[in-house]
Specification:
alpha+beta; Peroxisomal Thiolase, Chain A, domain 1; Acetyl-CoA acetyltransferase
Length: about 400
């Protein structure tokens, strides 16, 4: 259990997420994330030189990624600090915040900035020389599609892991469609009153659309309207499967920034010093081979155990749910109502830029907890390689 790490209220932002090959498709995600953070700091009248360590989280290679953490630190204006580039698939944001919290907890630094970025659009294609191949033919990898389609250890595609869990847990097509519709309806709540909920935390990136023109991206791009009738017409992606394209997420682009600091500094930076956000605990797990969606449950249980809490002690629960089976399995195993969590949005609906996804979910969870008068916020999400991570924050 952690005791010293805090997140200032409003000491975070998420950009809108844009469906891949959309408006952010041609931006270097590191540059866009750093430029967005710098504009956000300026709006808050924050001096980025106050930070003493930097975490850059991303999962898809971008130009100059070798220098990622120090380059992005310099671009945001924190020119004198070191940092680290962290990659843990869909658990990247969760682990960045946890690692930042550990540093604060152990007095290695006082004020850390976590910037999580990714661009699924126009993913890089890597080639390696293969002198032993026929005619010296190169080996190649598509960073996005090849890894969606095959885990080199489990030997199957991401969606197959969800189908494996569904079959073992007795998840049905009808349940998946029902959850997908519920998650879309929850997302619509975030759009009510001219997007009042999203405007509590969302910050518009400035995106180049030509050499001379930039635009501010104010809202999510590419969310698919969902209806019960529309879901029923879709075919399963895999033969005899329970997931259609309507019951899973889509690749996206975006970035998220989260500040992790001491209690005293958090009060100083907070938009409301009366609201404290404390990092309490972290959990991790790896499921059996080819069962990624099942890994969230043991990760959540670990985070709860470290915090000396029961899941029913939490006020807000958010998940990264690339497939409907994720939420159905967690609800089944944890004895909770699948319709009761992921209020105001989840990655199944607003998309999945990978590195920033969990960060946005955590931020939404914080804002919901504040609206409810405080309490424990639990986030849990799976990640490639049949792994998962979870984190608990205390808001009050």
């Amino acid at each position: 259990m952690l005791t010293k790490a805090f997140i200032p209220y409003k000491g975070y932002y998420s950009t809108p997420f844009a469906r891949w090959q959309g408006i952010m498709a041609n931006e270097n995600a590191i540059v866009l994330g750093a430029n967005t953070s710098k504009r956000w700091f300026a709006e808050k009248n924050w001096d980025p030189k106050m930070f003493d360590y930097h975490f850059l989280g991303l999962t898809i290679h971008q130009h100059r990624m070798f220098y990622g953490s120090t380059w992005s630190a310099a671009m945001i204006g924190a020119t004198g600090i070191p940092g680290v580039t962290l990659m843990q698939a869909c658990s990247t944001s969760t682990t960045c915040v946890y690692q930042a919290s550990l540093g604060v907890e152990n007095d290695y630094y006082q004020n850390a900035y976590c910037l999580m970025v990714d661009r699924c659009s126009n993913g890089p294609h890597t080639i390696w020389p293969n002198p032993m191949g026929p005619g010296g033919e190169v080996e190649s990898e598509n960073w996005l599609m090849d890894n969606f389609n095959k885990d080199p250890w489990a030997g199957n595609a991401m969606i197959q892991t969800a189908e494996n869990v569904s079959k073992e847990a007795g998840v049905t097509r009808e349940q998946c469609d029902d959850v997908a519709l519920r998650r879309y309806e929850q997302y619509l709540d975030a759009l009510a009153d001219d997007r009042a909920f999203q405007k509590r935390y969302m910050f518009a990136p400035e995106v180049k659309v030509s050499k001379k023109k930039t635009v501010l991206v104010e809202a999510d791009e590419g969310v698919t309207p969902t209806t019960k009738e529309g879901l029923a017409k879709l075919r399963p992606v895999l033969p005899d499967g329970v997931h259609t394209f309507g019951a899973q997420t889509h690749p996206a682009d975006g970035n998220v920034g989260i500040t992790v600091t001491t209690r005293e500094k958090a009060k100083e930076l907070s938009a409301d010093p009366a609201i404290e956000i404390q990092v309490i605990s972290y959990g991790y797990a790896r499921a059996k081979k080819g069962f990624m969606a099942a890994a969230v449950v043991p990760a959540v249980r670990m985070a709860l155990e470290k915090a000396n809490l029961d899941i029913h002690d939490t006020k807000v629960i958010k998940t990264h749910n690339p497939f409907a089976a994720n939420d159905l399995y967690m609800a089944q195993q944890m004895n909770i109502d699948v319709n009761s969590f992921n209020n105001y949005g989840s990655s199944m609906i607003f998309g999945h830029p990978q590195g920033p996804t969990a960060g946005r979910c955590m931020i939404e969870g914080i804002e919901e907890a504040v609206m409810l008068g405080g309490g424990y916020m639990l986030f849990g999400g799976c990640a490639a390689g049949d792994t998962a991570a979870a984190i608990i924050l205390k808001v009050g």
